[in-house]
Amino acid sequence: MTEEAAYSVPEDGNEDVCGGCGSCNDGDNLICCDSCPAAFHAECAGYANIGEVPNGDWLCWACAKKAKRAFLHPKTALQPQVGDDVMVASEQSGTAFRRARVVSTTDVNLYVAFLLSQQDKVWINKKSKRLWHGTLDAQAWSAGQGSESFPNSRTLRPAGWARPVPAPLIRRRAARQAAAAVVGR
């Protein structure tokens, strides 16, 4: 597959490459932001599967923040087993995550130990918006400062952090903007 093909933006206006993992496998089901070109696998947007994505208009994290709307988090409780790894969002930012291991569970809570600091343990509700329901695959995460990680989703990256945008996508966007300017005259 050429770089050009990997980063094409179809006529529907949404990217055909996941904004999280960068995959564009044929047949992938991507959820598309209703406000910008971003598209994601459900797992890369923080959902366990496509069935967990809420109905209605869906906005990516960045667009939800710009529109001052709450991101549509999964409504289901996360159900990991003792020994499973989970990602827990920082209470301060909500977008920086730390990897933790489930030490104990109850019907409604998880007791987790953060992996880089075994003394740092917390109880967290299984329905907490701080729990990431999506993929834990290494390719979908980038290291932040200290023990923090960020999903590769371009809409969750901290200010100043950027994965380079491929030149063909930049050219395509510039061409679309130029065409829109001509049509708008």
List keywords for this structure.
alpha+beta, 4-stranded antiparallel β-sheet, 15% helix, 8 strands, globular, Herpes Virus-1, 20% strand, single chain, 3 helices, 185 residues, two-stranded antiparallel sheet
Structure explained in plain terms:
This protein is of the alpha+beta class and 185 residues long. It has a domain at 1-74 and 157-170: Herpes Virus-1 (2-Layer Sandwich). The chain is built from 3 helices and 8 strands, in the order αββαββββββα. The protein has a 4-stranded antiparallel sheet with strand order 3-4-5-6, with no helix packed on it. Strands 1-2 form a two-stranded antiparallel sheet. A two-stranded antiparallel sheet has the order 7-8. Strand 1 (30-32) and strand 2 (39-41) form a beta hairpin. The protein is globular, with a radius of gyration of 18 Å.
Order of helices and strands: HEEHEEEEEEH
The top-level CATH class of the domain at 1-74 and 157-170 is Alpha Beta
- Could you tell me the strand content as a percent range? 15-25%
CATH architecture of the domain at 1-74 and 157-170: 2-Layer Sandwich
Sum up the overall morphology in one term: globular
Question: How does the major sheet shape up?
Answer: 4 strands, antiparallel
Number of strands: 8
Which structural class do the helices and strands define? alpha+beta
Number of helices: 3
**Roughly what percent helix?**
10-25%
| Integer average pLDDT | 75
Radius of gyration computed on alpha carbons: 18 Å
Low-confidence stretches: 1-7, 161-173
> What name is given to the CATH topology of the domain at 1-74 and 157-170?
Herpes Virus-1
The CATH H-level homologous superfamily of the domain at 1-74 and 157-170:
Zinc/RING finger domain, C3HC4 (zinc finger)
Please give the order of strands in the largest beta sheet: 3-4-5-6
Distance between the termini: 37 Å
InterPro entries: PHF12, Zinc_finger_PHD-type_CS, Znf_FYVE_PHD, Znf_PHD, Znf_PHD-finger, Znf_RING/FYVE/PHD
GO molecular function, one term: zinc ion binding
Keywords: Metal-binding, Zinc, Zinc-finger
Organism: [Myrmecia] bisecta
